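Exam revision sheet. Question 4 asks you to relate a sequence to its structure. Input first:
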Amino acid sequence: MPQRRDAEVLVFDADDTLWENNVLFERVIDDFLDWLNHPTLDRVQIRTVLDDIERANAVAHGYGSKIFLRSLGECLEKLRQRPATERERAEIEGLAAALIGHQVELMPGVAATLDDLATRHELLLLTKGEREEQQRKLDACGLLHHFRAAHIVPEKDADTYRWLAGEHAFDPATAWMIGNSPRSDILPARAAGMNAVFIPNENTWVLEHDELDPNDAGVIRLAAFTDLLQHF
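Answer key, structure tokens:
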């Protein structure tokens, strides 16, 4: 069993690390593709179009359910080469209605693991997205008492992690970013001088995928959230 590290700063991602998130969007996309029923393009081809639209909207407008609905509408308009009708927009909103009121579903073992880690380490939470939507999930998760602070940011890049280190006066070299996204959690944290723990989630959004250096000693790869207790 690996030796546990002494008290350090552990920074946690939220969506798809502490609780399920993207799988809900994937279910809506599946329903959207069924509903669209395009006469010539298959699901993979349509998904490529949607991914490109989502990528552009993430840069221009950010993240969250409202931007996702916008992307679905723009995808419809591009494929049908005309503006969406009011009825079509209402039907798309109906497909995605479950995203708005969905209860937070914690990953297995998250609450107990945080209970344990909080006795030995300083815990912070860092999540990106639309502020009101992310705050709703934070308020509903029942985990905030474990964290010294929780921050909602529009993007998670290296400057965000440098800001976090300055805000809480910790040495990046003794801190760990824990998350499922190579693009938002692991690579920018490493660029800012932090260590990282990568916990893959099979439902991670395709736009969060990226290549990790298998020889990077500053990244620990774990199969499950509960495995953190073997290292920290």
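Marking note for examiners. The radius of gyration is 19 Å.
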